[in-house]
Specification:
The chain is an alpha/beta fold. The chain has helices at about 20-35, 40-50, 65-75, 90-100, 120-125, 145-150, 200-210, 230-240, 240-260, 290-295, 310, 320-325, 340-355, and strands at about 55-60, 80-85, 105, 130-135, 155, 165, 170, 175-180, 195-200, 280, 330.
Length: about 350
């Protein structure tokens, strides 16, 4: 007998892209045109994205990691330099810093927001520090006011926060530049792909030059970091749907908050600029066994970050990061969750937590 897929058994995945017939149509149209490489559709996506994010320039790339790499190169960061990044983040940031030969310096978390702590960053600044990469994790914008006061170049990492805001100003418009990711499970998707945005024409021109080597001299190392037109066609469609995506995420978050507020759990910050890319629950105990228990109930949950960078590198001194990593779980929250699935997430988790006396 053929084994059923978990989705058919009612498994609710941790992440799922929100796609429809419009994405199928626009991608098919690009393929039918015969022009599938980077071209006019990418240019249109760049213009539309810059306008939506209220920035001067946007440059499409093959991935969010490529966008980070180019941003560091545009700031002329190299082997003699240090770049401060949070430990509680995926390895893409670590890799990008290593790509340019710089030294990654890890910082601890702000305990209230899961984002990099400006006070801890301040302690780690040296004469070699040339930039800070500031991810806005899980859809919540970092403490940009205090980070900007450090007077260092800032690269905002908006891979999980497209459309989030800080004091009513969209993230991505604060730093020297910002990067976005359009991977399959991000806020909006092209399957793969990324974007660098900036209000500096000089930085934007440098990134545009470095991302492609076609019909250019060999005076410097350039890359093949281009986006395709069919990815951009999907991106334009997803961008047009972004407001509805964010509205749905916030509606689900409100339902979760109301359902879980009486339990012994720490809920995500309730901030008006939060877009809830992830909905994080802190359990006040180790999450490992809970994750397995919840998975057996058919709900896709996970640690929000696979492993903090300081643990990869065998470093110590990141107490807040260690505590959050040990206790936090991420539960399903995305626009394609049906009302029935939202209700099932709430009922399943509420029953499990109440059984344990939470």
């Amino acid at each position: 007998m053929e084994k059923k897929d978990k989705q058919e058994d009612g498994f609710i995945p941790h992440s799922r892209p929100t796609l429809g017939l419009e994405e199928v149509k626009v991608v098919s149209n690009v393929i039918a045109s015969g022009y599938i490489a980077e071209g006019s559709v990418v240019r249109e996506f760049e213009r539309s994205f810059a306008k939506r994010m209220n920035v001067g320039y946007a440059i499409a790339t093959s991935s969010g990691t490529a966008a980070l790499h180019l941003s560091l190169l545009a700031l002329e960061i190299g082997p003699a330099d240090e770049v401060i990044i949070p430990s509680y983040v995926c390895t893409a940031l670590l890799n990008a810093v290593r790509y340019v030969g710089a030294t990654p310096v890890l910082a601890d978390l702000n305990p209230g927001s899961y984002n990099i702590d400006p006070n801890d960053v301040r302690k780690r600044v040296t004469p070699r520090t040339k930039a800070i990469i500031v991810p806005h994790l899980f859809g919540m914008v970092a403490d940009l006011k205090n980070l900007i006061n450090l007077n260092l170049p800032i690269i905002e990492d908006c891979a999980q926060s497209a459309g989030a805001s800080f004091n009513r100003q969209l993230c991505g418009s604060f730093g020297h530049m910002a990067v976005f990711s359009f991977y399959a499970t991000k806020v909006m998707t092209c399957g793969e792909g990324g974007m660098v945005v900036s209000n500096s024409k000089e930085l934007a021109d440098t990134i545009s030059d470095l991302k492609s080597y076609d019909q250019k001299g060999a005076d410097k190392i350039r890359f093949s970091y281009k986006m395709t037109d069919f990815q951009a066609a999907m991106g334009l469609t997803q961008l047009a749907r972004l407001n509805s995506f964010l509205e749905r995420r916030r509606m689900i978050a409100q339902e979760y908050r109301k359902a879980f507020e009486t339990l012994n759990l720490k809920l995500p910050p309730d901030d008006p600029g939060h877009i809830y890319y992830r909905f994080i629950l802190e359990l006040n105990q180790d999450a490992r066994d809970w994750i397995q228990k919840i998975l057996k109930k058919g709900l896709g949950v996970a640690r929000p970050v696979y492993l903090p960078l300081h643990q990869h590198l065998n470093q110590n001194g990141y107490a807040v990061t260690d505590a959050v990593w040990r206790q936090a779980i991420s539960i399903p929250i995305y626009p394609s969750l049906t009302p029935q699935e939202v209700s099932r997430v709430i009922e399943t988790l509420t029953d499990l937590f109440k059984e344990d006396g939470m």
